[in-house]
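In this supplementary section we document a worked example of the pipeline. Step one takes a protein sequence of length 98 as its only input; no multiple sequence alignment statistics are reported here. Step two produces a three-dimensional model, which step three serialises into structure tokens for compact storage. The input and output of this example are shown verbatim.
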Amino acid sequence: MIPGMRARLRVQGTRLLLDLDKRTHTRYLKDLLNVTFEQLPEPASWQLPRSTTVEAPAGPALRVTTTIDEWLPVDETDGDALVVIIVTRARDEIRRLG
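The serialised model returned by step three reads:
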């Protein structure tokens, strides 16, 4: 679950999935350029397809970089573990695709 949002972040197979507003938004692990756990210094927002806007408050967040930076608020205690899971899965997928 993502704090302050009715959203859930999942790693499933070859995809990073964000369940938000009764829709699932997908980022393919092979397309990830970087994933870091950081402190977002000020609120940020970014647009998903179908006019869905994600608002991330200042504070602990995952920075997911594909062609753009996307910030997802997370619990302070979960951030590092989420990065490890996502990066490990992405590396496995890149190796698999060879």
